[in-house]
Amino acid sequence: MNENNIAKVDFNLLKSLQVLLAEQHVGRAAKKMNVSQSAMSHTLTRLRDTFDDPLFTRHAKGLEPTARALELADKLDFILNEIDGLFAPPSLKLAQVHARFRIQTHDFIVAAYLANAVRAINAEAPHVIMDIQMMSQTGDDDLDAGKLDMIIGAGVKAKPRFMQKRLTDEAVVCLLDKDNPVLNSWNTESIFECAHIKSSLLDEQHDSVSQFGITAGMPARKIGLYAETLNLQLALLANTQLISFLPQSMAVQGQALYGLTVKACPFPLPKVTIKGVWHERHQNDLLHKWIRDKISAAFVSA
């Protein structure tokens, strides 16, 4: 090669050289490369100039490789396979992947959906460790800083730089003790006469029950107990006259665990939209996408 400069090498020439070495005949090589014989002869001339060597000598049956050509033959297959690999679709060997995937979410989402997703992920990717954290005020900053891989929450709003997917919409229902006397006269007025459990993380502006009461002109809402997480409300309802307003999946858990009663709310409340949010840098990451798909499937099958 006259100049040892990779920028001057046409890698298509290497493929032609590989075929010429295999066929040792210009005509057969041309047919295999789907070009004319004159084009292949021209390519051979370029190869000789590139490597500063005749590469082949002609004889009655075709071409005889020179020592330099035989030396190149030992390397060509490896080099061209590596180049082909650069353009091959990426693959994911789940059994060999070691990673930690960090999610911030609500407790009721873990119980209703993510537990099944984690089991499905671990079954196929045993070395992927899921790190489930409760929602915090630093979620967006943690996504930006790479300290968090995904947020799955109710009512979350994705920043412009984040990707998002709606996972499900849940109805809000009422949960109360099975002996609560309000069950004998179940209507909007009687519900607002009772004391409620309220999430201590929600202000009045973002509390749909409080907003309904204000809009409908109901008496001031009575708060009998504050609880930071929805899961705490389940154990606190038994043997009281309190009413809790929860996503349906959470209320069903309370019914199963504590024998509580689930009732449809007699006044309209907006559904709770649960979304997954992640940073755009992970949009095409194979492992991240695979885990997102597993999480989405868990919501669909729940």
Task: Summarize the main sheet.
Answer: 5 strands, mixed
The CATH architecture term of the largest domain is 3-Layer(aba) Sandwich
Tally of individual domains: 3
**Percent range for β-strand residues:** 15-25%
Unreliable spans are none
Could you tell me the number of beta strands?
Answer: 12
CATH-assigned fold name of the largest domain: D-Maltodextrin-Binding Protein, domain 2
Task: Report the CATH C-level class of the largest domain.
Answer: Alpha Beta
Provide the structure class: alpha/beta
Q: How many angstroms separate the termini?
A: 65 Å
Biggest sheet: strand arrangement: 4-3-5-12-6
Instruction: Count up the helices.
Output: 11
Oligomer: single chain
Shape: rod-shaped
Mean pLDDT: 90
Keywords: DNA-binding, Transcription, Transcription regulation
Domain HTH lysR-type: 9-66
Protein name: LysR family transcriptional regulator
Organism: Moritella marina ATCC 15381
Which helices and strands, and how do they pair?
Layout: H1 11-23, H2 26-33, H3 37-51, E1 56-59, E2 62-65, H4 67-87, E3 99-105, H5 107-124, E4 128-134, H6 139-145, E5 150-154, E6 162-170, E7 172-176, H7 188-193, E8 195-199, H8 208-216, E9 222-227, H9 230-237, E10 243-247, H10 248-258, E11 261-263, E12 272-279, H11 286-301
Parallel strand pairs: 3-4, 3-5, 8-9
Antiparallel strand pairs: 1-2, 5-12, 6-12, 7-10, 7-11
